[in-house]
Amino acid sequence: MQQSVLEYKNYRYFKIASLLMIFAVMAYLFHQPATGIYAYGGTWLGYVLGILSTLIAIVLALYGVRKRLVSMRRERRSLSNASLPQLNVANRRKNEANWLRHHGATLQGWLSAHTYLGVALVVLATLHTGFQFGWNVHTLSYVLMMVVVVSGCYGTYAYLRFPRLMTANMGGRDTFDALLLEIDDLDKQASVKSLQFSDEICALVLKARQETRIGGNFFQQLMAYQHKCPTAQAVKQLQVLGKNLKYDQLKSFDDLYIVVAQKDALVKRVRRDVMYRARMEFWLYLHAPFSMAFLAALVAHIVPVFFYW
Question: What is the span of the domain harbouring residue 142?
Answer without folding.
Answer: 5-171+284-306
